[in-house]
Amino acid sequence: MTNQQSMVIRGARLIEGAADILIRGDTIAEIGKPGMPAPGEAKTMDARGKLLHPGLVNAHMHGHGNLGKGMGDRWTLELLLTAGPWITGNRSIEDKYLTTLIGAAEMVMKGCTACYDLTVEFPTPSVEGLEAAGRAYREVGMRAVLAPMVADRTLYEAIPGLMDALPVALQKEVERLRLAPWQTTLENMRRALHGWKFDRGEVRPAVAPTIPLHCSDEFMVGCAQLAREYAAGLHTHVAESKVQVVSGLKRYGKTLTAHLDALGLLGPDFTAAHGVWLDDDDMRRLGGHGASVAHNPGSNMRLGSGLADMRRMLERGVNVGIGTDGANCADNLNMYEAMRLASFVSKVQGPDWQQWITTREVLEAATAGSARALGFGDRIGRLAPGCKADMVFLDLQHINWIPLNDPTNALVHVEDGSAVHSVMVGGAMVLENRRLVNLDLAKLARDAENARERLERLNRDNKALYEKLEPLVGTFCPGLAKAPLHIQRYGASHY
Ligand SMILES: [Zn+2]
Q1: What are phi and psi of 333, to 5 degrees?
Q2: Residue 33 confidence (pLDDT)
Q3: Which residue from 54, 226, 267, 284 has the fewest beta carbons nearer than 10 Å?
Q4: Using alpha carbons only, what angle is made at residue 120 by residues 100 and 82, rounded to the nearest 5 degrees?
Q5: How far apart are CA 88 and CA 234, in angstroms?
Q6: What confidence score (pLDDT) does residue 488 get?
Q7: What are the backbone angles phi and psi of residue 427, rounded to the nearest 5°?
Q8: CA-to-CA distance for 315 and 325, rounded, in angstroms?
Q9: How far apart are CA 160 and CA 162, in angstroms?
Q10: Could you tell me the end-to-end alpha-carbon distance of the chain, in angstroms, rounded to an integer?
Q11: What is the CA radius of gyration of the chain?
Q12: Inter-residue contact 364 to 314 (CB < 8 Å)
């Protein structure tokens, strides 16, 4: 928003207590006592009966996953990757726009105002595909970091021994899944970054070499150089599953994080997704470089990846943000649920309750922590003068808030998104009285159903291929994960 119109929100309750908020343009100008003076031209918004909290920031999700919502059940990460061509194949530019739009709508309706989207296009990203995704976020009115998620090796090339474990006929079939050469992908990303069409305060670019094992070293170094050249973020899935950790040790002779460190990828603009299987040294490296981890407890449980240890990460100086992960593996994009799970996952790490993550720490991670991971710095994720006016209005008459005891505990442990009444991004309402301001949900439903039906038809062969691969990948990978590892943690010990 560029205009400098003023607005004063009166009668609201903040987490800290009753307060009025003066907004100038898209920014919070002042937070003061109820009844504080405001400029004569300022419009007044009545927020009596509402609890205001900073817009939640989703540190890790996948826009392409939304058309695949609810498609799978018993998937490990490796089976999800095997299913990729089936659930994400044959997408048109319009589909890429639509799938992003579905996620943006869901996130806003559930109190999220910014996200880090790792979006995939097969066999390589395109300027048009990224523009379509960016357009979807702007249309709904939320902020996003948009990262083409890229690789130059398929799963079968990435996991040592997996290709050889397939019968020759299937080896031939997975050949057709081969990705573009990394030079082509790098060039396409360069074109997208060079002519970036969006205001970086609203939709920022980033680069996401998806998983270290799936990217050659030359490619990853190229991604890091590109990100630095264009002041873009860098985001990679790191130590998400035990299969990755075992494969990483085999391929690199060191941990995935140590390998990324040696390649020069770690830095304050680097975000590692998941980090379920990080050891102390990995966490120290990440913390030492000022890097972030996007903690996605829902996805980690859904895919059976394990339980990440947020307390140890914080102790070693890692900036922790919280994410939902994609709708094809989580499956909702509900940041309230992600916060609740982040709290619970910490509490099953062991009986020493003083090590458990507090609700305050969870909320901090899901707002300011995620905001830092996204590269928006401290301009979002807080309600304070100088910050963007991104905030959620919760209905205190909703059953979730009856009675209102400790607001932080209730936000993390009680709220599930159903009390979200209105959402503001940059001083403009994007959800008002539970209705999206800029989007017709009925039309979205029709468009999504048409796309779903068409894609189901187009991806019939890819589904058949998945069904042939499932028993093989589903046997080989768990076998690999049987190797003992020296990471002793309550949550990980039974793996
Ligand atoms: Zn992910």
Answers
A1: -115, 55
A2: 97
A3: 267
A4: 115
A5: 23
A6: 52
A7: 80, -5
A8: 24
A9: 6
A10: 49
A11: 22
A12: no
CA of 324 to the centre of ligand 1 (A): 9
CA 494 to ligand 1 center in whole angstroms = 23
Sort strands 292-295 and 270-274 into parallel, antiparallel or unpaired. Answer: parallel
The rounded Å distance from CA 272 to ligand 1 centre is: 10
Q: How far is the CA of 236 from the centre of ligand 1 (A)?
A: 8
Among 239, 212, 234, residue whose Cα is nearest residue 223? 234
The number of helix segments (H) and strand segments (E) in the chain equals 19, 17
How many other C-beta atoms are found inside a 10 Å radius of the C-beta of residue 493? 9
pLDDT value of position 486: 67
Q: Is the distance from CB of 148 to CB of 125 less than 8 angstroms?
A: yes
Q: How far is the CA of 240 from the centre of ligand 1 (A)?
A: 9
* Residue of 121, 177, 122 lying closest to 146 (CA atoms): 121
Find the helix or strand (DSSP H, E) in which 30 lies: strand 27-32
Collapsed DSSP state (helix, strand, coil) of residue 117 = strand
Q: Separation of 401 CA from ligand 1 center, angstroms?
A: 32
H helix runs in 406-485, sequence order: 407-413, 441-458, 460-480
pLDDT averaged over consecutive 10-residue blocks of the chain (495 residues)? 81 97 98 96 97 98 97 96 97 98 98 98 95 98 98 96 97 93 96 96 98 97 98 98 95 96 98 96 97 98 96 97 96 97 95 96 98 95 98 98 98 98 98 98 98 98 97 96 70 46
Distance, CA of 214 to CA of 152 (rounded, Å)? 6
Rounded Cα gap, residues 389 and 42, in angstroms: 15
Ligand 1 center to 330 CA (angstroms): 10
* Cα 60 to ligand 1 centre (Å): 6
Cα of 149 vs centre of ligand 1, distance in Å, is: 9
| Distance from Cα 299 to the centre of ligand 1, integer Å | 8
Q: List CB-based neighbours of ion ligand 1 within 5 Å.
A: 325
CA–centroid distance, 433 to ligand 1, in Å, is: 32
Position 345: which residue type? V
Contact status, residue 340 vs residue 270, Cβ threshold 8 Å: no
C-alpha of residue 323 to centroid of ligand 1, in Å: 9
What spacing in Å lies between the alpha carbon of 291 and ligand 1's midpoint? Answer: 17
Q: In which region does residue 487 sit, left (phi positive, over 0), alpha (psi from -120 to 50) or beta (all else)?
A: beta
The whole-model pTM stands at 0.97
Q: If 0-12 CB within 10 Å is exposed, 13-18 middle and 19+ buried, where does residue 308 land?
A: buried
CA 338 to ligand 1 center in whole angstroms: 14
Phi, psi dihedral angles at 36 (to 5 degrees): -60, 150
Q: How far apart are CA 396 and CA 58, in angstroms?
A: 24
pLDDT at residue number 485: 79
